[in-house]
Write a structure and sequence with these properties.
This protein is mainly α. It is built from eight helices and two strands; from the N terminus they run αααααββααα. 63% of the residues lie in helices and 6% in strands.
Length: 165
Amino acid sequence: MARAELPIAGGAAEHGVAQSLEDLRLAEARLDRRDDGRRDLASRDRAALRYVAERADGGEPATPTELAEHLGISRSAVTALVTRLVAAGSIATRIHVTDGRSKLLQPMQRTAGVDDHDLLGESIREAVATLSEQDAGTVRDFLELLREIVDRKAAHARRQAADAD
C-alpha cells in the first residue's frame, strides 16, 4: 500500500528516510499503547532505569535532578518515579558523597528491571549486527544527530515552560 510522503525540504522525502522515521515513531507508540497494560514497567520507568544504569556504568551515578532533566519531567514527578522504582527494588538511593543534600541513584536488579521488559532490545541488537562497520557508523552518527535535535527541543520547551511560570 502506498503511503503519503511527509513534506520535507531538501529532497529528504525522495529517499524516504523522514517517512521511515515517522513510521518507526508511530509503530513504537502503538507497541507502547498495546503493551502498557501487560507490563510492570511503563515507558518512562524503563527510560529512567536505562539512564540510571548507563550513568552507573560510566562511573557517574545520576541524581534525581539529572534524571528529571533527562526525562523532561518535573522534580515532583521524578520524586514519585524514584519512590516507585525504589519500592519495586529496581533502584536504590544513597547520599551524595560531596553534597549531603543530594541523592545518588544506583541500579539494583539490572536485567530484571530493563531487559525483561524491553520487547525490542534483543531484536534491535540482532538487526544492528547485520550492518557493516561503515553503515553502523553512518546510522550511529545520524541517530546521535537526531538525539541532539530532540534534546535541544526538550530544553527549549522546558525554558518556555519555566518562563511561563
